[in-house]
Each structure stands twice: as structure tokens, then as C-alpha cells.
Amino acid sequence: MAEIRTVGVIGAGQMGAGIAQVSAQAGYDVVLYDVSLDLATKGVEKVAAGLERLVSAGKLDAGTRDATIARLKPADGAGDLAPADLVIEAATEKEEIKRRIFAQVCPVLRPDAILASNTSSISITRLASGTDRPERFLGIHFMNPVPVMKLVELVRGIATDDAVFEISKRFVGSLDKTMTISEDFPGFIVNRVLIPMINEAIYTLHEGVGSVESIDASMRLGANHPMGPFQLADFIGLDTCLSIMQVLHDGLADSKYRPCPLLVKYVEAGWLGRKTKRGFYDYRGETPVPTR
Ligand SMILES: NC(=O)c1ccc[n+]([C@@H]2O[C@H](COP(=O)([O-])OP(=O)(O)OC[C@H]3O[C@@H](n4cnc5c(N)ncnc54)[C@H](O)[C@@H]3O)[C@@H](O)[C@H]2O)c1
Fold this sequence. Notes:
Blueprint: E1 6-10, H1 14-25, E2 29-33, H2 37-56, H3 62-70, E3 72-74, E4 86-89, H4 95-105, E5 114-117, H5 124-129, E6 137-142, E7 151-156, H6 162-174, E8 178-183, H7 190-206, H8 212-222, H9 229-236, H10 238-252, H11 261-269, E9 281-282, E10 289-290
Parallel strand pairs: 1-2, 1-4, 2-3, 4-5, 5-6, 7-8
Antiparallel strand pairs: 6-7, 9-10
Bound molecules: nicotinamide-adenine-dinucleotide (NAD).
């Protein structure tokens, strides 16, 4: 296969819908697959609503919106992924779920189809080894929200074929994204650097060095970060931050990656950030109020 025309996306959640959107906007035919046709259809509707917002904001014309939506098809079962040249898996971040999906989908795909995972933390090499095509498997790691964030990390598994990597690079380039290349180690590049920084901010709070507001203001104004570490942690989700720290701790076996006990406590309380309306800030009122 020389080039990609049809993209299959597995998982119509936050990331899968975004990947489907940017792929369709770039002119690819997209098949969006989830556990049911109903969920896949909801994913397509989510993309349509996102495009509508762009039209309202004057950032997209109605003709391009219609053409983009026409290229998106919800899958009625894994069989609909058969025409895909590239399949990007963006399902729930659980290794056994991803393995089950690959076992179900691989027999449907053409032998030369490329398979990629958008995983944030699972080893690409290990996922690849559970498929029938480790040479045609790689990580294509988009950032959240996909239509807004410019970066995509391309992750080479130990077996990934050079030609497959080159085709994937051209695909990502065609989405108007900037890519970086990461070897397959825990956290890749962005999360390896970002999440320990957030964890350190939580230790700084835990040890009483500063308050939530003073640490956030320090990093916004003193390090020129657009958001403070607690604002960002609440946006990412504290459960996600904790699980990435655990992956770094387990995978790199270095105590410098130990998750801060205060982070664990917030997650145990179910205070997971914006999505539960409470994290390092309380979002239930008009303006966010620090919870410590
Ligand atoms: N959310 C982020 O900030 C972010 C950023 C980069 C990468 N990721 C990665 O993207 C992936 C998806 O994350 P998300 O935030 O979109 O999750 P999400 O929970 O919003 O969506 C996951 C989707 O997968 C579907 N799914 C579950 N089991 C399935 C199956 N067997 N077959 C088909 N679909 C199935 C679910 O129904 C759901 O729609 C994860 O691997 C995550 O690590 C997430």
C-alpha cells in the first residue's frame, strides 16, 4: 500500500471523535467504530456538532462542513473496518480491552493495513506483539482536544517497519499537525516530562511550600506556562495523572516517579478535576475556588 485513503477509528469517545474529525477534514474517508452502532453514530453526531460550532464562529464554511460529514461513516460492527488502509485505536485505556479489540479486528483487515494505537501509556511493542502485524503497528498519539492541539507523537515499536513509519508520518503531516518522534518508553515524551512536573507541584502543595493558587500563579507568571499545574491537572483528570505516574513508576522502576500521596487521596475521594466538578479547584460555583 502506497498511501492512505480510508481511515478506521476504534472508539468514538473524546479522542476517537477528534481523530475522526481531523481525518475527515483532511479529506480521508473515515469509518468510526465503537461497541455499538448507536455509540458510533453518537460519535459522528459529536463531530457534526463540533463542525457546526466552527461554522458559527466563522472558522469553517458550510460546504466544507457538509463534505466532511459526508466522509464520516459510523460502523455497524467490526466488519465495516475492512476497507481501512490505516486503523487508529482510541478505545478505553485498558490493555485487556485493546488486546480484545485487536483480536477481533485483525482478521477483518487487509494484511497490508496499518494498525496504530493512540494509547497514552501502554507499551506499543507489547500491544503490537499481541497482533498479527507487529511490523505494521505503531503509536500515533494525539493530544486532547485533537482538533485544537498541534502535536502528534509518533511512536515506533521495536518491530515497526520503516516504510510503515514513513507512510504514517505523511498521514500525520497531511492532518496539518506537527509531529515528534518518540521511542517506545513509558510516557513517551510529553507525559514523561509533564506528569512528573504536575506530581512535583502536588508534592510542593503537600509539603506546605505554597497554596494551590500561589503554585499556579508562580508557574503561569514565572515559567510562562499558559495554565498552572493544578488547573492543568484538573483539566487532564486526576485519575489519568495518577495512572500515568503509576506507569512511569512501574515501567522505569525509579522512586523519583512515586505518585504523591495527596494525588492518591484526591483520586480516592472521587475528586477527579473538572469532569467531577471538584479537584484541586471546586467548579460548582461561578468561578473555580481552590480546595486547599
Ligand atoms: N483523554 C485524553 O486526554 C487522551 C489524550 C491522548 C491519548 N488518550 C488515549 O486515547 C484513548 C481513548 O481515550 P478517551 O479519553 O477518548 O476515552 P473515552 O472514554 O472518551 O472513549 C473511549 C471509547 O472507547 C470505546 N470502547 C470501549 N471498549 C470498546 C471496544 N471493545 N470496542 C470499541 N470501542 C470501545 C468506549 O465506548 C468509548 O466510546 C486511550 O487510549 C487514552 O489513553 C487520551
